[in-house]
Design a protein that fits this description.
The protein has about 230 residues and is an alpha/beta fold. Helix content is about 30%, strand content about 25%. The chain is globular.
C-alpha cells in the first residue's frame, strides 16, 4: 500500500474562487502520472474538469499546447486567472466534459472528474462546489461518459490519464475503456484519509456496501488508456 502522492513543488501558488475544487490528493496523484508520461514541447494536451487549472498549468510548464474544460463558470474563471498569473497561454473553455472540443484530437488527455457516490434525492443536479464531486448513486455519471468518448478525442497512440476512487468501480472503467478499443491499466495507486464530503457520507456508503464501517481511508487510482 502506498501513501498519498506528495504535492508537486511546481504547482506554485494557485488562486481559487470560493466553490472551486482546489488541488488535493487526487490532483497530486494525477500530476505524478503526468510527470511520468514524459510530456514534450508542442504536444497537444486536454485537461477535462480542470477546476483550478492545476494540471493544465503543469502541462503548460512542460511546454505543451494546452486546452482545458470545465462546466463550472467559477472554475473557468479560476483556471484562466491562474494561467494569466503564471504567464502561460491556456485555452480554457466552459462546457460538459469533452463537449467543447468535439471534433478535435489530442496527444494526451488528463481528467479528474466528479466521482463521489451520491445518495438519490441528495440533489437532482449538483450545483455550486458539489459540481466538482457529486457523481450519482454509483459515482459513475461522469466516468461512464468519459469512457464512452475518450477514444474520440485521442490521436493514434494518444493517452488518457484518469483519476478516480476505488469506490466507484475501477474494473468497470477498465472494462468500458477496453470495450471502446483502448489499451488500459492502473498505473498509480494511493490511499488517503477520507475528506469532509466522504466522511459525512460514510454511514450511507456503508449501507450501500461500498465501504466497511471501520474504513478510514480511500483508495485512489490513475488509469492510463492508450489508443492504438
Amino acid at each position: 500500500m502506498t501513501t498519498a502522492a506528495a504535492r508537486p513543488a511546481d504547482f506554485g501558488n494557485l488562486w481559487t474562487l470560493p466553490g472551486v475544487y482546489a488541488p488535493q490528493a487526487d490532483t497530486y496523484l494525477l500530476a505524478r502520472a503526468l510527470h511520468r508520461e514524459g510530456v514534450t514541447a508542442g504536444m497537444e494536451v486536454l485537461d477535462v474538469c480542470t477546476g483550478s487549472g492545476a494540471l493544465a498549468l503543469l502541462a503548460a510548464r512542460m511546454r505543451a499546447r494546452v486546452t482545458a474544460t470545465d462546466i463550472s463558470r467559477r472554475a473557468v474563471m479560476t483556471a484562466r486567472m491562474n494561467a494569466a498569473r503564471a504567464g502561460h497561454r491556456i485555452r480554457v473553455m466552459r462546457g460538459d466534459l469533452t463537449g467543447p472540443v468535439a471534433g478535435r484530437r489530442f496527444d494526451l488527455v488528463t481528467s479528474n472528474p466528479p466521482y463521489v457516490p451520491t445518495p438519490l434525492g441528495h440533489r437532482s443536479r449538483p450545483h455550486g462546489s458539489a459540481v466538482a464531486w457529486d457523481a450519482g448513486l454509483g459515482g459513475r455519471q461522469a466516468l461512464d461518459r468519459i469512457c464512452a468518448h475518450a477514444r474520440d478525442v485521442l490521436r493514434p497512440h494518444g493517452v488518457l490519464l484518469l483519476v478516480q476512487s476505488g469506490l466507484c468501480g475501477v474494473e468497470e472503467t477498465l472494462s468500458r475503456m477496453t470495450d471502446s478499443g483502448l489499451s488500459c491499466s492502473v498505473t498509480e495507486r494511493s490511499y488517503v484519509p477520507y475528506g469532509p464530503v466522504m466522511t459525512k457520507r460514510l454511514p450511507w456508503l456503508s449501507d450501500q456496501g461500498l465501504v466497511d464501517a471501520d474504513d478510514d481511508a480511500e483508495e485512489l487510482v490513475v488509469i492510463r488508456a492508450e489508443r492504438s
